Amino acid sequence: MRMKHGAAVLALTLAAFAGALLDGDGDGDSSLVLAQAPSTVTRDPGEATIIRVARTATPAVVSVTSRSGSGSGVVISTDGIILTNRHVVAGSRRVEIGLADSRRIEGEVLGSDAALDIAVVRVGARGLTAAPLGDSDRLEVGQTTVAIGNPVGLDRTVTTGIVSAVNRSPRGFELGGLIQTDAPINPGNSGGGLFDSQARLIGINTAILRGTTGLGFAIPINLARNIAEQLVATGRIVRPYLGVSTGELDYDAAARAGVDLREGVIVGTVDPRSPAGRAGIQPYDIVTRIDDAPITSSGELVRVLRSRRPGDTVRVTVRSLDANGRLTAPRVVQLRLAEMPVDP
């Protein structure tokens, strides 16, 4: 009896508790009142920007499958011109392109630039969504970046970050003048797009520094666009040739050694038959300017030279170290840029 009485009390207590939940105001209304979420979601401005860029830019990003593997690409014109990396399409004249609308079509590799790791592909489809192009020469460190590609086969993955630096020439890379970003770039992202906060294409993602986190690099769109325009118009790439390899200078170390140096790159090798060789530029010379443009990195040298054409005459400002390790006065040599042969 005592157990039955206890069970009855427990049942009445639970019923009373449930009634209190259902009838919180004591008026006998047994409807359950729940807090309602607002009908519209308020988003942080930064979050809203990323969402808008992703929605706008993603339809222009494609997958690229070739004999050498797979990667990403970006449509830059509605009549079927696509930018990707040369290493993505290496050894292939025909590739498979996966469009955002799930179609898979064949693409023709028009050509590539080994020095810049850019390739241009054309597909027969028309009316494609193309990414608007930004101006990579006007990038500011700290700008928002959005990387979109197909890492490890996960189509159109979006990652975000900032422009960490510009005109980078990472050690161990043959490329120079790159955009550095901390937006995660993974295998399969190669050839995909790096976009700004206005969904404009500012770079083609190309590489990460192995063993690091947040050190990704993209080819500036101004350089990539120049290659695309040449290949579409003429079927070949024409690049100016100075004829030197260069390395970075440590300005702080120079200052500690008593050398007042605030700009310049050090010359490594010189092709004696090149414009630089014929003008008397030597290994260990320091190139500080091309015309009136200061040269503070190998990447900046690449950028300035690529704005010129073979046959253009340029003024190269050079300094040297004398036998006592002191810098000589600047000297200006005038030379005519040659055309560099490019691998097909």
Descriptive notes:
The chain has 344 residues and is α+β, with helices and mostly antiparallel strands. The chain has three domains: 46-123, Trypsin-like serine proteases (Thrombin, subunit H, Beta Barrel), CATH 2.40.10.10; 136-234, Thrombin, subunit H (Beta Barrel); 239-340, Roll (Pdz3 Domain). It is built from seven helices and 20 strands. A six-stranded antiparallel β-barrel has the order 1-2-3-6-5-4. The longest helix is centred in the N-terminal third of the chain and has 21 residues, at 2-22. It is globular and about 85 Å long.
Decide which structural class fits the backbone.
Answer: alpha+beta
CATH class of the largest domain: Mainly Beta
Outline: globular
Main sheet attributes: strand count, strand direction, barrel closure: 6 strands, antiparallel, barrel
Instruction: Please name the fourth-level CATH homologous superfamily of the largest domain.
Output: PDZ domain
Low-confidence stretches: 7-28
Query: What do we call the CATH topology of the largest domain?
Result: Pdz3 Domain
With helices defined by DSSP (H or I, 4 residues minimum), what is the helix count? 7
Count of structural domains: 3
- Element-level helix/strand string: HHEEEHEEEEEEEEEHEEHEHEEHEEE
Distance between the termini: 97 Å
Question: What is the structure about, briefly put?
Answer:
By secondary structure, this protein is α+β, with helices and mostly antiparallel strands. It has seven helices and 20 strands.
What brief labels describe this structure?
six-stranded antiparallel beta barrel; alpha+beta; 7 helices; Pdz3 Domain; 344 residues; six-stranded antiparallel barrel
